[in-house]
Amino acid sequence: MEKRDGRPAGAVRLDDPWYDTPASGRGDQGAAGWADADDTADAAVQDGPDLSWPSLPAQRTDAPGEPGEPTHAEVYLTVQRSAAFQEVRRRYRSFVLPATALFLTWYLAYVIAAVTAPGLMARQVIGPLNVAMFAGLGQFVTTFVLTWAYARHARLRRDRAALDLRWETQEMTGGNVR
Amino acid sequence: MTGRPSALAASAATDDHQILTLVLFSAFVAATLAVTAWAGRRRHGSAEEFYAGGRLFSPMENGFAIAGDYMSAASFLGISGLIALFGYDGLLYSVGFLVAWLLVLFLVAELVRNCGRFTLADVVAARMRRRPVRIAAGVSSVTVSVLYLVAQMVGAGSLVALLLGGTSQVARTWTVVGVGALMVFYVICGGMRATTWIQIIKAVLLMGGAIALTVLVLLRFHGDLGTLLTTAAQRSGHGTDFLAPGLKYGGSWTAQLDFLSLGLALVLGTAGLPHILSRFYTVPTARAARRSVVWSIGLIGGFYLMTIVLGFGAAAVLGTDAVRAANPAGNTAVPLLALDLGGGPDSTGGTILFAVVAAVAFATILAVVAGITLASSASVAHDLYGALRRGGRAGRGAASPERGAAFREVAVARIAAICVGAVAIALALLAQELNVAFLVGLAFAVAASANLPVLLYSLFWRRFTTRGAVWSVYGGLLPAIALVVLSPVVSGSPTALFPGADFQLFPLENPGLVSIPLGFALGWLGTVTSRQAPDAAARHAETEVRALTGAGAA
């Protein structure tokens, strides 16, 4: 079974800036992470670029401890540039992008063939089964096979590395670890 | 699912069927109410619980619930009916509805689970200026949900007329109102937890019903699919053409383009349906979201394979002419097939099977509408209310603004569920004559045009900006709706909504072929014509890292 690492229902984590509670007031108080400072920042961006948030470090208290601690944004930029993350992203993309192109092309070819080449699709293959029926059932088969292949690829080649990165990132941002 | 119940359906729906159907359906309603009460008893009113069921469902449970949310009565009755009438051309629906899930599995499910909390807008707004993006995504999500909701409720009304033999307008009206009231009750009292369990129960019932009928069809033909197809082709009156494309979508170039448009909308729409997206938040991790999609692909694929057998089975057992005589749209093919497989109209077996199929179809509609109502109430409360309120309010100094706001938002969501339910009931009563398959196709087209481009751009395009997001949502939503208004569905044809008027400018019934590329194109245009926010790189980094690793996920 899946590891149930969700926290108990109803718990509220105040320290996660992604925890974007609408109408919370934290944006107005200017005492929250970057995601919550963005209303202020947006206004600034609209009025004049010189007031955008990177020049307002005082508004960001996501690193309230020592002054030398990296900010939230810096942590994510660091992780994004790290070799480990780039590898996870490369593995993910090298599977899903070709696979998506493949199944979309196959599906569209199937749909377009039905309206442009009905003669070909109606050609008998075995017994009552014609090309069209084989293609339709083939769509089912490819869908099941691609699902299985993706789940396997993700499980074997991505899950472990992604989980490690998750804990590391949360440790760096501090407080997000449950 | 429009069309009048004919003499055959009416004669099939004898008193015995009606009573048994009502008993079974009442049992389902009672069971779901018990589930709702059970879920409501343990509630503590947090947003996490209301929108996401506490995020503690297992992948298998969520997989069944996703399948339950997705397999509507339109699939069960409508697709089988289309196959019984048009043979191979009906099968294209089954394929499109299933293949769409690969897009969800590969590009959407895990990433959305990792970066969002409750809604589609969460994912987009995290990178953008929040207010305009939230409002745009909220508006389009509510639009899609209401369209889908109306489709299902119109279907419920028609189904009652067809299956219970209640031809009167009053019976239909009360069915729509009753279904609406029940779905609102499930949502406001049980939230996501009750809704999920209702979906699970419904999915089990629907799969059970479909398996039983499929087995009976196969037994009838001694397990020989070849004989089944040959008999279906013979009894269809079309010969081998019945097994080849072109019976429904051959003809003119507009019919062919319409078919391409529908095919595109079906495969791209699923990944933008708000009630499907919100299901990924009911499991603890992205890995669990992936596994629930794998479960649901297995269930949905199996189900659509069975609809093919049932459709050809109906043609082979009943004959296409009998199916068409019972209901021109083919919606009664499966119930009539059940009647025949059980032993005919006068047998006990036939009566029981017919009643079971009818009750399963009702249960299906009820569960689907509850899921959509919940998703749209989340969009109203979490996206629209949150964004609009935030804009017009000065700072507050409450002791615990966080928790208070969350509780208030859930209260708003409950009110929103009532409002959405009322709007859907009203629209469903107005739209009773509209074709259900068309409404579903439209909901998919709007979802694919307005929701999918913004979602994919946010997750995968580093340069994407706020203006791009807003343009992409409205650039898909508004053309989709405008093209429908200008289409032959609304005016300029004998079967249109306003047959008297003629302001038809657009030849296709489904807008997807034009509006989906427009949504993508305007998202691109809005982005390249706007300046990036200074912190865009950092925000993109955070989205990307969160999406792929799950760091900091709710």
Briefly summarize what is shown.
The complex is a heterodimer of chains A (178) and B (554). Chain A is mainly alpha-helical and 178 residues long.
Q: Would you kindly provide a written description of the structure presented here, covering whatever features stand out?
A:
The complex is a heterodimer of chains A (about 180) and B (about 550). In chain A, helix 3 runs antiparallel to helix 7 (about 160-175) and helix 4 (about 85-115) packs antiparallel against helix 6. Chain A has a two-stranded antiparallel ribbon with strand order 1-2. Chain A is elongated and about 70 Å long. Helices cover about 60% and strands about 5% of the residues of chain A. Chain A has about 180 residues and is mainly α. Chain B is an all-alpha fold. Chain B is built from 21 helices and no strands. Chain B has helices at about 5-10, 15-40, 45-50, 60-70, 75-85, 90-115, 120-125, 130-165, 170-220, 225-235, 255-270, 275, 285-320, 320-325, 335-340, 350-390, 400-430, 435-460, 465-485, 510-530, 535-550. The relative contact order of chain B is 0.18. The model of chain B is unreliable at about 1-10 and about 390-400 (pLDDT under 50). At the A-B interface, helix 1, helix 2, helix 3, helix 4 and strand 2 of A face helix 3, helix 6, helix 10, helix 11 and helix 13 of B.
